[in-house]
Amino acid sequence: MTLKEIIERFDLTVHSGEDNLEREVTGCYISDMLSDVMSNSRRGQLWITLQVHQNVVAVASLRELTGIVVIGGRTPLEETVAKARDEGIPVLTSPLTAFDLSGRLYEAGLRGRS
Prior knowledge:
By secondary structure, this protein is an alpha/beta fold.
């Protein structure tokens, strides 16, 4: 499933990375701890978090994640969106909780680590 398909299916809002929405999403990783994401996420995963600061972009770039979804109706900081644009990292938002969004993504066939 591509990031674009996920955005359309789950009504996510795109804040950056519009040129990289055809990327294939290989799974999801949910965490709010940057060190956890750096240690355990895998290339191609979609990262679900409530963190809105620009350090999430650096972690997503380092781990070669497909994109970042900020959940719970939070809005990424302007500095975060600017850095994400520079890095080509899609930053998306959802009004859903991590639990609800991950359940829907799971039903759609996406999994975590395997």
